TrEMBL record, chain A:
PANTHER family attached to this UniProt entry: HYDROGENASE MATURATION FACTOR HYPD, HYDROGENASE PROTEIN ASSEMBLY PROTEIN HYPD
Recorded family membership: Belongs to the HypD family.
Protein name, as recorded: Hydrogenase maturation factor
Encoding gene, per UniProt annotation: hypD
Iron listed as a keyword: yes
Gene3D superfamilies cross-referenced by the UniProt entry: 6.10.20.100, HypD, alpha/beta domain 1
Claim: Protease is one of the keywords in the record: no
Organism in which the protein naturally occurs: Shewanella algidipiscicola
UniProt keyword terms in alphabetical order: Iron, Metal-binding
Listed Pfam families: HypD
TrEMBL record, chain B:
Coiled coil: none
Species of the source: Shewanella algidipiscicola
Signal peptide location: none
PurM-like C-terminal domain residues: 167-319
CDD domains reported in the protein's UniProt record: HypE
Recorded family membership: Belongs to the HypE family.
Database matches in InterPro entries: HypE (IPR011854), PurM-like_C_dom (IPR010918), PurM-like_C_sf (IPR036676), PurM-like_N (IPR016188), PurM-like_N_sf (IPR036921)
Protein name according to UniProt: Hydrogenase expression/formation protein HypE
All copies of domain PurM-like N-terminal, residue ranges: 45-156
Gene: hypE
Highest rank taxon of the organism: Bacteria
High-level lineage: Bacteria, Pseudomonadati, Pseudomonadota, Gammaproteobacteria, Alteromonadales
UniProtKB/TrEMBL annotation, chain C:
Family per similarity comment: Belongs to the HupF/HypC family.
Organism domain of life: Bacteria
Protein's name according to its UniProt entry: Hydrogenase assembly protein HypC
Pfam families the UniProt entry points to: HupF_HypC (PF01455)
Length: 371, 341, 77
């Protein structure tokens, strides 16, 4: 029987990583072109940069850090929504972890909290239910963010609020979807991405089937990878093998956790409470059709966007003109190509989305690269 | 000393306890004087009169921690150990401390006594005395329970320890496994609902530093890795001494529980605070001897050489992974929040 | 997105739709609302923001690790 510690130690083993790197080197040298791999997910960006995996790869393999960081892709006007909601009398705004660091047009939620707004960063969405019950005289608003991975947890929170009759709990939904983001990246004729590393946990929930359309549409390999360094290296090896063989297939390296169909029970809960939003503006990518979710009309009584609509009349706010996040997300530019990278734009005062969170491409380059 | 000590009958601190009158006198005598008893404090002059001899280190620190009691310590232990350690890190023998309390109205007397008792026991470990102090009580809501400030002076026994004195070739040593205080505080916070055997490393470092001084070894730099953790100390050193510091990730001691917490929330052990773990830069030739002394006299037996000072990448700290890739070890940024993506 | 460390189920609280899981000596209670089938003691699970997302296939994980050992052996000989 496998021990729990083997499940991480085994997938971080230096010898295995070395050997995979050598095999990748050997095989990639036989491939005539460049392999530009987009890791869609911010968690993979983090693994690659933290473990320095890019340093172990040959020159013809490059990573393009994708739009899969839910904090980074949030446009400023949506963060302003959160700040406006938090500034309303008798409101408690609840959101996940490092969302409170991200600056909107008038400051980050952390700054609004310092000015006296009741803003609570939490780790577990169900804590919001406790906060709502403990503060029956207040309106508690859950500012929901995240990709397919985090959406079912919001659905459970809605379900619990409904079942337990917790009527002072409202939602501001910013859940976004991976496939439309891939489409938005690939729609640019200049896009250079020719292989994908598929997200780990998004796939745990949604199943590997989520990427079949992309594989067919763009004729690129998609390998669903785990988050450990060995997972990522093995997935790159599998991509290189596909490139050499000239195939474009959906492959699941993270098979210990990802099935074809995913967690159907979780998907069903999401569908019960949430539906496709016709359009959502992504920071860096602009408006993308059908790329996000919203509450179903039957739950309009919990929709903070509807209930506070008069206050939330905020125009779209674009990033600084010099910011090249859009090009970076599409793989057309590297962070270091951007004129403001590391000068006007730093993790302490980001001008664009990619510098915002530790999963953003520019932030990761700023912190980890260049040794 | 002919002061009659009367125990306050009330169970919580009231505003009148800070008013300078009888209640305040009772509180001070029955709790603080009793626990910290020494002739200088008992003399009750407007200022403590000290006999200092030669170069003296002087430091101050204010302590606010939530929760006030945590696995492995409390704010009292922290307030003494923190200031004593700052003196010890300068090669100074911690002699005298001042101690000021800002207490929120309604604070439980029993908790205050417990905190003061733990201060007394911590003072005993380094033979340090509290010689003056102050007490203020603020209305409910104006402080979070209890804040403590301590300042301390100590005679420098080993001069020339400085952030500016790192030299290429020096070995970097950590006195024990890192991140336990920060992890214990996070564990104790509401909201994370965690359980583990993890305890803060909060400890008085004078006993082990005294042994290092007695061994008459060369110490170029020494600092306790408090807020900002190992990452902050190494970056401060690299910048102050204009050198590069290279550390091997696999050599940095980290307990399983700290690793576990970091894995669960996306923290890095080298960003987490310590309160009884320090870093040294010493000549390579004596490094293993230093590790031996620390492991013999310190609280943890996990001291290790984790890297060396280099004459390149000036001002930067470079971390080498077990498979040979490298990255900058940056200063921790902002408030520690769980990484969600 | 997210954090990858697997956890082991060490206690089950059926009334609350929750389980206690452990990783590297750290225990915490997490929700099992997203699981359609009951969890068992010693199951290995992935956690995301306080919820069990799924069970890890131990046999599959073992096969992967065996494969890596083979690669290592092959390289060394």
């Amino acid at each position: 029987m496998i021990e729990l510690n083997q499940l991480y130690q085994g997938f971080r083993d230096p010898t295995t990583i070395h050997n995979l790197a050598r095999e990748i080197q050997t095989l990639a040298s036989q491939y005539p072109g460049n392999i530009n791999i987009m890791e869609v997910c911010g968690g993979h960006t983090h693994t690659i940069m933290k473990y320095g995996l890019n340093q172990l790869l040959p020159a013809n393999i490059e990573f393009v850090h994708g739009p899969g960081c839910p904090v980074c892709i949030m446009p400023k006007e949506r963060i302003d929504h959160a700040a406006i909601l938090a500034s309303q009398p008798e409101v408690i705004l609840v959101t996940l972890g490092d969302m409170i660091r991200v600056p909107g047009s008038k400051g980050s939620l952390a700054q609004f909290r310092a000015q006296g707004c009741d803003i609570r960063p939490i780790y577990d969405p169900l804590d919001t239910l406790t906060i709502a019950k403990e503060n029956p005289e207040k309106t508690v608003i859950f500012f929901a963010i995240g990709f397919e991975t985090s959406t079912p947890m919001t659905a459970v929170l809605i379900e619990q609020a409904e079942q337990q009759g917790v009527n002072n709990l409202l939602f501001h939904i910013n859940h976004v979807l991976v496939p439309p983001a891939i489409d938005a990246v690939m729609a640019d004729p200049k896009a250079t991405v020719n292989a994908f590393i598929g997200p780990s946990h998004v796939s745990v929930i949604s199943g590997a089937k989520l990427y079949r359309p992309a594989v067919e549409r763009y004729h690129t390999p998609v390998v669903v990878a785990g988050f450990e360094p060995v997972d990522v290296m093995e997935s790159i090896l599998r991509i290189v093998k596909q490139k050499l063989a000239g195939t474009a297939e959906l492959d699941v390296q993270y098979s210990r956790a990802v099935s074809e169909d995913g967690n159907l029970h979780a998907q069903q809960k999401v569908n019960q409470y949430l539906m496709i939003r016709p359009q959502f503006r992504w920071r860096g990518l602009g408006p993308v059709a059908n790329s996000a979710l919203m509450l179903r009309p039957e739950y309009a009584h919990r929709d903070a966007e509807r209930i506070f609509s008069e206050k939330l009349n905020v125009a779209d706010i674009d990033d600084h003109k010099a910011c090249q996040c859009g090009d970076i997300l599409r793989g057309i530019a590297k962070p270091k190509d951007c004129k403001v990278f590391g000068r006007g734009c730093t993790p302490e005062s980001p001008l664009g989305s990619c510098m915002v969170s530790s999963e953003g491409a520019c932030n990761a380059y700023y912190r980890y690269n260049g040794v | 000393m002919s002061v009659e000590i009367k125990l306050p009958t009330e169970k919580a601190v009231q505003l009148s306890h800070g008013g300078g009158g009888k209640e305040m006198n009772n509180l001070i005598k029955s709790i603080f004087f009793k626990a910290f008893a020494n002739p200088i404090l008992a003399s009750e002059e407007d200022a403590a009169v000290l006999n200092l001899d030669g170069p003296t280190a002087f430091t101050t620190d204010s302590f606010t921690v939530s929760p006030l009691f945590f696995a492995g310590g409390d704010i009292g232990k922290l307030a003494v150990a923190g200031t004593v350690n700052d003196l010890a890190m300068m090669g100074a023998e911690p002699q005298y401390l001042s101690c000021s309390f800002i207490i929120e109205e309604g604070f439980a007397i029993a908790s205050l006594k417990q905190i003061v008792a733990s201060m007394a026991s911590e003072l005993h470990k380094s033979g340090t005395r509290v010689v003056c102090g102050d007490t203020k009580v603020v209305p409910k809501g104006c402080a979070d329970g209890l804040f403590i400030n301590t300042s301390g002076v100590g005679r420098i026994l080993k001069p020339h320890i400085s952030v500016n004195h790192l030299q290429p070739g020096d070995a970097i040593i950590v006195s024990g496994d890192i991140g336990r205080h920060g992890a214990a505080i996070l564990m104790a916070r509401e909201g994370l609902n965690l359980e583990s055997d993890l305890r803060s490393d909060c400890a008085n470092l004078w006993p082990v530093v005294e042994q290092l001084i007695a061994a008459n070894i060369t110490i170029h730099a020494m600092r306790d890795a408090t807020r900002g953790g190992l990452a902050a100390v190494l970056n401060e050193w690299a910048q102050a001494s204009k050198v590069g510091i290279s550390v091997a990730e696999s050599q940095i001691p980290v307990s399983d529980e700290v690793k576990g917490l970091c894995e669960l929330y996306g923290f890095e052990p080298h960003d987490l605070a310590n309160e009884g773990t320090f870093i040294l830069a010493v000549p390579q030739t004596i490094a293993s001897g230093v590790v031996e002394i620390i492991n013999r006299y310190g609280d943890s037996q996990t001291a290790a050489i984790i890297g060396q000072v280099e004459d390149n990448h000036h001002g930067k700290v470079i971390l080498t992974t077990p498979w040979g890739s490298t990255r900058y070890l940056d200063l921790p940024q902002g408030e520690l929040l769980p990484r969600i993506c | 997105m997210c954090l990858s460390i697997p956890s082991k189920v060490v206690a089950i609280h059926p009334d609350e739709q929750a389980v206690t899981v452990e990783t590297m000596g750290v225990k915490r209670k997490v929700s099992s609302h997203l699981m359609s089938e009951p969890l068992a003691m010693d199951d290995y699970v992935l956690i995301h923001i306080g919820f069990v997302m799924n069970k890890i296939d131990k046999v599959d994980a073992e096969q992967s690790l065996a494969l890596y050992r083979e690669i290592v052996d092959k390289m060394e000989h």
